Every structure is written in C-alpha cells, then in structure tokens.
Amino acid sequence: MALSIKEKGISTKILGVDKSLNNANEAKKIGIVDEIIELEAAIEVADLIIIAVPVDATLQLLPKILDRIGDQSAVMDVGSTKNSILNSIQNHPKRKNFVASHPMSGTENSGPSAAFYGLFKDKVAIICDQENSFDWAVRRVEQVYNAMESRLLYMDANAHDEHVGYVSHLSHVISYALAVAVLEKEKSTSTIFDLAAGGFASTARLAKSSSEMWTPIFEQNAENILPILDIYISKLNEFSTFLKNKEYGKVTSFIKEANQIRRVLNKRE
Questions:
Q1: Per-residue pLDDT of the chain (269 residues; tens, 9 = 90+)
Q2: How many Å apart are CA 59 and CA 215, to the nearest integer?
C-alpha cells in the first residue's frame, strides 16, 4: 500500500511505525517508508494513519490513536474483520475520523520484503459503514484505493464479516486442515515436495499464512465461520459416504454440482 502511495505521488512523505526494529529498518532500507518514527510523534503529524496489524492488536491500538489524533486526521485499517473493531470505538468522540476498510488481496508471506507493487490492482477493496465516517475521511481513503487501482465496494460491517467468513476465512481453515492432514499421513516431507503438483500447492498455499494474523481473525469472526464450516464438514462426510458405498454416480453428480462455481468465478474475471 505504501509503495503504491509513493508511486502515485499522493503523499509527500510516508512515516513507518513498527514495534519490530528489524522490520522497521528493513522497510526504510528497501524504500517502503521514508522515515521510522515513534507512534506518538507520527500521530501528531500524519494526515492519514493506516493500521496494518493483526486484528486483535487493532482492538488495542485504534482507540489509543483516536484519543490523540487531530480533527483533520483520518485513520483507516486493513483488517479482515470489522464488527469487533467498530464496536470497540462506536462511542468514541473521534469515531467519524475512522474509515473501516478491507483490501481483498494478499499473499501467504509477511514482513517488509514480501511487499511488491501491484498487489491490490484490480482487486476488490471494501469500505464498511462509510455513513458513520466523515465524508472527507472516506474520500481520503478512496484516494488510496484508487491509487492502487482497486475496485471499491461499500458494505455494512455485518454483511462484510458474514461474506468474508464464507469466501476468505473458510478457505484458510480448509488449507490449514489439509496441510495438517497431509503432514500427519505423509511423514516423508521429501515425498510431499516431489509430488506437490499444482492442485495441492495452490490449495495448501494459504497454510503458510501467519498464525499471529489468522488466529485473531478466527476468534473475532467465529460466529460467521462456524455455520459454513459445519456445512463444509457435512459435504466432506457426504463425499466420504459415496466412496465407502462405491456410489460413483453420486460422486459424479457431486463434482458436476461443484462445477457450477465456474459460473460464479467467471463473472469476476
């Protein structure tokens, strides 16, 4: 995000704040930020503060930032959950300075060296409950996403958490479970490496994602993840029953039903 802001020239200076000195120094060294600064000092001078930390840390950090910002400063987050975060500041006097957002793109890698230009290009970015934010603050956040060439959607926080629970959070649960299952069954990691073709690699890719980021997401959005996870488990049990009973016609029907996802995904391409 910082790279795109710099590339498009919509900011004269980007300040970096991180509790990890190694990450901070690396971010400055490779040109993601112009200067490393303490949080309190950054809050005093920043026109826009982007909170890019795990969502449990956002719960602690956001109210403290809002306590200190000036009237004309905007704050945005990029977290994958929204309800818990917005509930934590619903009565804060600077609530309208905050814009809740979620860019729907990322990789399984983390740290400054994982950053690259174009990550959010043509990807959906969601702004939630924008009616509860100042118009000028929303415009400032929109400017960032426009600079990244993202496609903006506007949703309420409840709908956001429900839908990302289906299409994003469940995908990570599945990937983690697949990785654990294969590692448990296949003790020879060299064999996994040799046989890891495109299907397995693409499905298990998300299992490399950080636990520090994803455990808080699962915690905050469990009420939306559990119902779809139950449906997923029931579908796995169905498939297992078909195989046990040698009902391969039902396997074929199951696959053909699943093929209908092509119609949904093709609309996004």
A1: 999 888 888 888 999 999 999 999 999 999 999 999 999 999 999 999 999 999 999 999 999 999 999 999 999 999 999 999 999 999 999 999 999 999 998 878 888 888 888 899 999 999 999 999 999 999 999 999 999 999 999 999 999 999 999 989 999 999 999 889 888 877 766 666 666 666 777 778 888 888 999 999 999 999 999 999 999 999 999 999 999 999 999 999 999 999 998 887 776 55
A2: 14
Q: Which residue has the tokens 């926080």?
A: 157
Query: What are the CA-CA distances from residue 101 to residues 12, 128, 141 (Å)?
Result: 23, 6, 8
DSSP, collapsed to helix, strand or coil, labels residue 155 as strand
Closest CA to 53 of 67, 41, 39, 73: 39
The residue whose two tokens read 């709908």 is 159
Answer for the pair 37, 44: CB distance below 8 angstroms, yes or no. no
Sequence-distant (6+) residues with CB within 8 A of 260 are none
Q: At what angle are helices 222-244 and 248-259 packed, to 10 degrees?
A: 140
What kind and span of H or E run contains 112?
none
What is the pTM assigned to this prediction? 0.89
The CA distances from residue 172 to 46, 119, 168, in Å, are 34, 19, 7
CA 161 – CA 110 distance, rounded (Å) = 23
Are the C-beta atoms of 18 and 27 separated by less than 8 Å?
A: yes
Report the DSSP beta bridge partners of residue 151. 124
Q: What is 2-155's CATH topology?
A: Rossmann fold (3.40.50)
Task: Give the whole-angstrom CA distance, residue 153 versus residue 159.
Answer: 12
* Structure token pair of residue 199: 């299907």
> Which DSSP symbol is given to 179?
H
Question: Which residues is 155 bridged to in the sheet?
Answer: 128
- d(CA 91, CA 253) in angstroms, rounded, equals 52
